[in-house]
Amino acid sequence: MDFVIRLEEEKDFEKVEFLTREAFWDLYGPGCDEHLILHKLRKSPAFVKELSYVVDKDNHIIGNVVYTIGKVTNGNKQVHEVLCMGPISVLPEYQGKGIGSKLLEESLKKAKVIGYKGVVIFGNPKYYQRFGYENAKKYGIQTSEGENFDEFMALELEKEGLKGITGKFHIDSAFEVNKEELETFEKGFPPKEKNFKL
């Protein structure tokens, strides 16, 4: 399949929010909020514009990945910046074709070139372990609540890139969504039925 991975441009924003909504709809619960999170992240100082990539197939955007700056704070109140990846989206009809993997590989290479030391994510271990992600407890990194679980992972972008970076990981406040703002944001999209089943 022929496609191009390129930096996202402002003209892509609405299309990317639509594809993010399509990719996450009914995945973890009724509807989704990832498209609103993406919309809010772009306005945040934590947003890393130079790592916002889209997959362009014949002038049709079918995938996207974004990164933000997350912070790891330790007991001495030291603050270390690391990357936080996500959301990453691929239109449902193009999933399972290696597009997401290629998008991740290319964006991680770019992050390393820019000089970032490591990435922390919440995601599916079976998928992300193939890229070198490991349980964050290996590096002494916990969630903001002081927890560790298999879906909380970290990746060094260079040898010992996360050495000495220990403590609690805090994501940007843009990831927090309330029901009212989601309902308002949803009015800008075509109506879509919720069919989530446990």
- Average pLDDT for all residues: 95
Instruction: Give the amount of beta strand, in percent.
Output: 25-35%
What is the number of beta strands?
Answer: 9
Q: Helix content range of the residues, please?
A: 10-25%
* Cα Rg: 17 Å
Shape by Cα distribution: globular
Contiguous runs where pLDDT drops below 50 for at least 5 residues = none
Q: What kind of sheet is the major sheet? A: 9 strands, mixed
Q: What is the CATH topology? A: Aminopeptidase
Distance N terminus to C terminus? 34 Å
Number of domains: 1
Count every helix, treating DSSP H or I runs of 4 or more residues as helices: 5
CATH superfamily: Gcn5-related N-acetyltransferase (GNAT)
Task: Look at the helices and sheets and give the structural class.
Answer: alpha+beta
Name of the level-1 CATH class: Alpha Beta
CATH architecture: 3-Layer(aba) Sandwich
**How would you spell out the order of helices and strands?**
EHHEEEHEHEEEEH
